[in-house]
Specification:
about 130 residues, mainly alpha, 7 helices
Length: about 130
């Protein structure tokens, strides 16, 4: 099952039941809530202090190591700049185990990273119930 299937969303991120179109933030907030907020936040590969510092520089957290985000999201991405190619392989991570426990067996590196980055924002925000 994909993340969209798990969340009951169509290919435009519209809820199949209500017809409501979810924003990027709403989609990943909903995913994190359904997977278990504390469990997903525990997968973030950086400390709260690092997130607080870096989020001031870049709200997308791209100043932090992409390799760490990818690995925590369940992938190893290797780039060969001379050939202009990338090798993407699944990598077992705490987040991939959470996905599997909920029946999610198909996700992209972007899905994993977006889930983790939204969890990181929640970790340091007022929204972290």
């Amino acid at each position: 099952m994909t993340i969209r299937e798990f969340l009951n969303l169509d290919s435009y991120d519209k809820d199949r039941t209500t017809g409501e179109e979810l924003t990027h933030e709403q989609k990943y907030d909903k995913l994190i809530d359904l997977l278990g907020r504390d469990a997903v936040i525990a997968c973030v590969p950086f400390t709260a202090e690092q997130i607080k510092r870096e989020i001031k520089k870049d709200k997308h957290l791209n100043t932090l190591s992409m390799q760490k985000w990818d690995m925590a999201g369940g992938f190893i991405v290797t780039t060969n700049y001379k050939k202009g190619t990338q090798d993407v392989r699944h990598y077992r991570s705490q987040l991939s185990d959470i996905f599997a426990a909920h029946g999610i067996n198909s996700w992209s590196p972007a899905d994993g990273v977006c889930t983790l980055k939204e969890a990181a924002r929640l970790m340091v925000s007022d929204r972290s119930r």
